[in-house]
Design a protein that fits this description.
Rossmann fold, seven-stranded mixed beta sheet
């Protein structure tokens, strides 16, 4: 299994993925590539690229690492730096989710999955509709750890159309 995580720092989700991909002998049964603008502490077996995945040089580095393999799972936990202006923050959040979806559409294998953090608010319903045009199934999940008052949800798209 090949997993790419966008917005990986500080590495919490990367650790979860790594744990899930550990085989009975303690070796990874898949490949994990983590990308972020910020630095991240090294994790055994995880390849980390510091930079903007939307940047041509970073994308080229990722393509080289994958050596032609399609991705099984794209995770995006990206969030913008918040300004405190709700409409601007919502627009930035949707923009990050959109470029993550573009990335997933480009590199996922046909039966792959895309998990993205999203915030319910301006542009959210349009984004969900966009994902439904790209993936056969799209489900919304609110983690138990998320505060009830939080607008944060995760969208899971499966199987490219």
């Amino acid at each position: 299994m090949a997993v790419v995580e966008l917005g990986a720092a500080p590495g919490s989700w990367t650790q979860v993925v790594r744990q899930r991909l550990l085989g009975p002998n303690g070796a990874l049964t898949g490949r994990i590539v983590a990308l972020d603008l910020l630095p991240m502490e090294p994790l055994p077996g995880v390849e980390f690229i510091q930079g903007d995945f939307h940047d041509e040089a970073v994308e080229s580095h990722l393509i080289d690492l994958l050596a032609g393999a399609r991705i099984d799972l794209v995770l995006s936990d990206m969030a913008p730096n918040l300004s405190g202006i709700a409409s601007a923050d919502a627009a930035r959040s949707v923009h990050l989710a959109e470029i993550a979806a573009d990335f997933a559409g480009k590199y996922l294998q046909p039966n792959g999955a895309f998990l993205v953090k999203a915030f319910q608010g301006s542009g959210y319903s349009q984004y969900v509709e966009r994902l439904k045009k790209v993936f056969r199934t799209v489900v919304v999940r609110k983690p138990a750890a998320s505060r009830e008052s939080s607008a944060e949800v995760y969208l899971l798209g499966r199987e490219l159309r």
